[in-house]
Amino acid sequence: MKSNTHLLGGVVAGAAYKAFTDLPPETLQHELTFFGAAVLGSLLPDLCHPGSYLGKKTVFLSKTISKTFGHRTITHSWMMILVLFLLPQWIDWRYEESLSIGLVVGVLSHLILDAATSRGIQLLYPLPIRFRFPFYTKTGSKTETNIASLLGLLAAVLMIHLYIVSLF
């Protein structure tokens, strides 16, 4: 999937997490940290691809990960989820829980979307088993464009529900 689809997926996943856990909105700083982390997490797995949005911004790191592990391996696996859940916990910061959960929610949205592509993901890396949904699409296709449009609509509906409807 392309970066715009992943970004929208991160927002939808974050809003869905907030809606389905029935948590009331916290302080603005907590909400911004959570959603910022969800959006960042939705892009982080593609650090392994030098041509990706983040890969272009972190060329040395991206090329190193790509040459060492390959694309859609370690950064698209359970290891990435674990590292991004634990890493913020080592920071003595009042928003570490929002950061930690937001990152994981964003990464999970990325992995789900990439599992809906023809290449799939290696969720159990280092085991060479690829996971892919039985229905899948090609990155950049018309189907992906439609998925991104639906995610945008769903993001808008969920955010309106979370921050406007819930106030009344």
Description of the structure:
It comes from Fictibacillus norfolkensis. Keywords: Hydrolase, Membrane, Transmembrane, Transmembrane helix. GO terms for molecular function: hydrolase activity. This is Metal-dependent hydrolase. Helix 1 crosses helix 6. The chain has 168 residues and is mainly alpha-helical. The protein contains seven helices and no strands. The termini are far apart.
Distance between the termini: 37 Å
Q: What is the mean predicted local confidence, pLDDT? A: 92
Strand content: under 5%
The low-confidence runs, each spanning 5 or more residues with pLDDT under 50, are none
Q: What is the H/E order? A: HHHHHHH
Number of strands: 0
User: Major beta sheet, specifics?
Assistant: none
Helix-residue proportion: 55-70%
What's the shape?
A: globular
Radius of gyration: 16 Å
Number of helices: 7
Would you tell me the structural class of the helices and strands? mainly alpha
GO molecular function: hydrolase activity
Pfam family, one: YdjM
Keywords: Hydrolase, Membrane, Transmembrane, Transmembrane helix
Organism: Fictibacillus norfolkensis
